[in-house]
Amino acid sequence: MVAPLALKRSGGHTMAALGAIKFLTIHCAATPEGRAVSADLNEPYEVRFDREKKPGVSNLLEILAAATGRAPADVAADYTQYGALKTATGEAVIELLRPIQARYHELVADRGELAALLHKGRDKARTVAAATLDRAYRRLGLLA
After folding, report:
1. Same-domain status, 129 and 80
2. Residues 91, 116: one domain?
3. 106-142 per-position pLDDT tens digit
4. Domain annotation covers residue 84
5. Overall number of domains in the chain
6. Labelling 88: which of 80, 102, 117, 132 has CA 20 to 30 A away?
7. Is 13 a member of any domain?
8. Could you tell me if residue 142 is inside a domain?
9. Predicted confidence band at 7 (pLDDT cuts at 50, 70, 90)?
10. Can you give 93-110 as a three-state secondary structure string?
């Protein structure tokens, strides 16, 4: 299970903070050649899975484990240095995001299709919201 991250948008990047990680940035539009993940770890250099004593490293291990379908402790056995772990985590995240990136680029390239999808989503949201709002009004006695 991936540890929860506190996410916040900042300057076009999504920032995450968890325990000993000062920041973790995932550049969703990054290419494999670019830097997809950066993390600042405030811990002694040792790669092992230990949420209490090594939350930053453990978080990276959990992200990599989730991306590769392995257990965090098993992933840890493959690494002795943070640099290699950070690089592998970035590459795994890029591979997970690749289909999302491809679809994003398709939509951005076809503004007509994007507008149609946004209108369809808006209409669906309005329908769901109207039913929910009607139910709330009735329960509050505002509507008969």
Report:
1. no
2. no
3. 999 999 999 999 999 999 999 999 999 999 999 999 9
4. yes
5. 2
6. 102
7. yes
8. yes
9. very low
10. HHHHHHHHHHHHHHHHHC
Give domain status of residue 102, yes or no: no
d(CA 130, CA 144): 16
Which residue range forms the structural domain that includes residue 133?
110-144
- 105 within 8 A of 51, measured Cβ to Cβ: no
Statement: residue 44 has pLDDT above 70 = no
Sheet containing 13-18: order of strands: 6-10, 13-18, 21-26, 37-41
Q: What is the 3-state secondary structure (H, E, C) of the chain?
A: CCCCCEEEEECCEEEEEECCEEEEEECCCCCCCCCCEEEEECCCCCCCCCCCCCHHHHHHHHHHHHHHCCCHHHHHCCCCCHHHHHHHHHHHHHHHHHHHHHHHHHHHHCHHHHHHHHHHHHHHHHHHHHHHHHHHHHHCCCCC
| Phi-psi map region of 50: left, alpha, beta (phi>0 left; psi -120 to 50 alpha) | beta
pLDDT bracket for residue 37 (50, 70, 90): low
- Scan for tokens 């990680």, then name that residue: 21
